[in-house]
Amino acid sequence: MVQYLWDDILIGTPIHVDNPLFTKIHEVVNANAQRIMTLNTQPATQELQHQLLEEITGHPIDSTLQVNLPFNTDFGKHISIGKHVFINSNVMFTDLGGITLEDHVLIGPRVNLITVNHDIDPQTRRSLVLKPITIKRNAWIGAAATILPGVTIGENAVVGANALVTKDVPPNTIIAGNPARILKMIESS
């Protein structure tokens, strides 16, 4: 479960550009940019990779995590990663709203996890609207899938390659398409 950096982040409530929190957010983004660049460009052992990910996220990283670089995040501090998680290359975690990956999650290459949206009103369009993403235990997100703000992917669910996921995915289902829809239920063996 994600722990938010500041108590005044209210999920679903716009953060307007005149809010002091808006400035704090950009300060964290700028500070993390160097760590992310180092992670993605410097040869590193898995231990050093985990150390850099701990600095980026501000949370302990389990030794069972496997990440194929490059790994991208804009904020970093609102990511929670469980045990035995695999994250393939060229993912994008837009995590200000919070991203939780439970144990045994698989994330395919070029996946986008987007927790930030903008206000529809043109006068306040730069405002940020945050909604968390949760990917439950043993779920698999296929290559180049995009998960939008506020979505929960159920336990054991499979999201097909290139899917655009706009709403919650029930456990034990396979979904695909744009927008994603249920293709079938997964039967236990």
TrEMBL record:
Q: What Enzyme Commission number(s) does the record list for this chain? A: 2.3.1.-, 2.3.1.79
Q: Which UniProt keywords apply?
A: Acyltransferase, Repeat, Transferase
Q: Give the Gene3D superfamilies listed for this entry.
A: Hexapeptide repeat proteins
Quote one Gene Ontology molecular function term: maltose O-acetyltransferase activity
- The top EC class, named as a word, is transferase
Family label: Belongs to the transferase hexapeptide repeat family.
Name of this chain's protein: Acetyltransferase
State the species of origin: Staphylococcus muscae
